[in-house]
Amino acid sequence: MAVLLVTGSPSVADTVVPLCAAVGVEVEVCPEPALSLSHWTGADLVLVGDDVADLVVALAPPRRQGVHVVGLSPGDEVFRAAVALGAASVLDLPGASDWLVDMLADVGERSSPGRVVGVVGGAGGAGSTTLACALAQWHAGRASTLLVDCDALGPGLDRLLGMEDLPGVRWEALAETSGRLGARALREGVPGREHLGVLTWSGLRRRLDVPTARRILPTAVGGHDLVVLDLPRQGGPVLAELADRCDDLLVVTPATVPGLAATARLVADLGRDGRAGLVLRPGGLSDADAERVTGLPLVATVGDQRGLAASVDRGLGPLAGRGPLARAARDLLAAA
């Protein structure tokens, strides 16, 4: 069962049932609270009407996630029942209908969050954005993937992948909205092809702020198998916030004295634990030198790829055919 609605109120049922039908989820209306116990733990989402909330509390159902109390102008006493049930919210209908629709749209989504891989350049021009695109392209051939452009001053990841003309929501629209955004709504709303979506910036650029990042990233992770973050080197609090949320952080740098020196400063500022690894680009210094200077373990080396610029100019993205990027993306995600 997708949704269990426990209510004896025709008004509540007549409000909730059409919303479930609109998003295509199955709903079972149970007017007798005692009969709801057999379905209580098996439903993806449980909605308890304010008319029977106290009766449900008296039955002492097991605590679980995904319980909400719904009603038409519910009174203050309903909140005590909601707390006793461990409900996540009390929804005042029909005013909260949009919120409920977003919640219903996520019914049946993944029960465990996807993986978050962050990519940041240890030095300017290291190729971190190219690697982020390659990781996303490689994984999108296997499962749902979202590539997130966290650098408002970058080239625009949709442009690098030939998606700049595709319709869809960009960061500017998300920054101007508030409230809950469903995982499915985000996945289907961003520009994308097949299993690859891109959350990036339009021409009206602004810097990403921490509250927006905190609100959107959990939704992105809830709707995708993999989320790749292209992180800004000069991100300040946003960089620290997003880096802390990564399961794996890849720091890309050329094997040169200036590159490794800049990378060492970045790593010191981030203060990462064992989840960070070094991706080395061509240069004159050795792998051992790179690990010693940065304090990070080497997880991959990526050589120059022939025809990279032409591939991007043709709208194919950096991962066209075989080459160093494809091998690095495969190995890095296999090890993640």
TrEMBL record:
Rv3660c-like CheY-like N-terminal domain span: 6-111
Record-linked SUPFAM superfamilies: P-loop containing nucleoside triphosphate hydrolases
Stored InterPro entries: P-loop_NTPase, ParA/MinD_ATPase, Rv3660c, Rv3660c_N
Entry-linked Gene3D superfamilies: P-loop containing nucleotide triphosphate hydrolases
Xref: Pfam families: Rv3660c_N
Protein name per its UniProtKB record: Septum site-determining protein Ssd
Species classification: Bacteria, Bacillati, Actinomycetota, Actinomycetes, Propionibacteriales
